């Protein structure tokens, strides 16, 4: 996310960072970034579609180290996808599909190699990684919140409001600031520049050593006012701007020669990074000549386009600037959710310009307005009931499914699956998504204009979904659904009627019955010979055996039930659950010891496909139950 190449460019300037100690404070963390960082950097295998017990252990150890330093984390997590980022999101999903295809090709080529081969450890999170992470946070009583759309702007606003460090690897956080404050700012620490592994001791306890970004002191943005950094990012190209769109319209600063590289020079070295660096420096040098103003440089940029192209150029530029607006006046609901009725007061004072009312041709003033006010998108989920809103904030209702109503459609991400021979793993959970959308459309009672993702033009309303077709493409599918009122129905009675789920005998624990329902739905929706008789399915029997063994070990080892005890109230200092992951650590080590090192076990894509299907059904059923 953010400006391509910007992190590497800034990291090349050591003066842009200063060593700091983290202890005795709140810290705001980019939830998705931390999930990725933990999963990929903890040595957990990714090619088996989820090592969730090991991930639970890694997550708890991470939280315990923060608590050792008396740090109170707040994890802020992305919500709905934004309409304007459809192209970027779909391109990323296609890249993941290519990764899955390459994995299957490499793993099935002769000679066959063991599935644990390091080259097979691709950068692809399993389906339930986020849910597993949040389940651990809830067990430990850690604060987290899912925001309406992308987390970047809200995370920056919360960190500025609380005066707390913000930790992420997203290059957009080099840009964010309280643009109209006379003092103070955003304390941004890149994730990989914070040593989470080794808390260090000092007289007052323990601390984490980190490198914080110091924009005002470093040479990277020398001469740029904080308010000019968003314009820098837009001109260089962020997620909202087509690649290289403004490159030919950035004037040369008077003191700099135009950057030209001859073919023989380009062939002799890697020209990409150097060209980006030259462009970044060129934009900084040019903007710094305007003394902290963005109105005049915006006017000059837009006026450089042919008259017919100016509206489109302005649209891109304004959308890009709006993505760097810091919504300080919109964080109150999030603060109240996290801290209750009396949230901490704001640590920064600034006077944000309002009531500008520029004309359509006053591009510079419109740019200033976009940065001050952000997007004017309607508060799409504001009409939800308090119960639904709370479930969304807790991420019990999955935002990815809500994209069917409020964005361009549900994008079903590929996993480690049989992309060469089988249909998408998500087809077997399609009936759950149809049911979810039908219930949510009826439950929200929203005006049709506030449901941009739903097509009401047909006899039956439709939503859209993007799924893998074959091994190389994503296709958009129209999915009909039926609006379904609940009318006070009991949850399981309603689902049993609609999905024909089996009853739960009193002797069967609820968690085991839930697993049986997942297997039942998988077998029925998959409708293949190997799942026709569920009681004879080796995959179903293996899943049940592992689940029962794990649950018995946890209960016997004092590991607790893994319940979602933390619900986003208080300061999150409570330990929740047991706080003791000894049973989980022992179980992970035991499972790892069961595989003999001398036996070659290639990846079985038939099994991996079924495992991914089961997780897709689990994801859908859990989301449906949350309604």
UniProtKB/TrEMBL annotation:
Gene3D superfamilies assigned to the protein according to its UniProt record, in alphabetical order: 5'-nuclease
Chain spans, region Disordered: 559-581
InterPro entries, A to Z: Asteroid, PIN-like_dom_sf
Bias (Basic residues): 564-574
Organism superkingdom: Eukaryota
SUPFAM superfamilies in the record: PIN domain-like
Family: Belongs to the asteroid family.
Protein name: Asteroid domain-containing protein
Organism, as annotated: Mesocestoides corti (Flatworm)
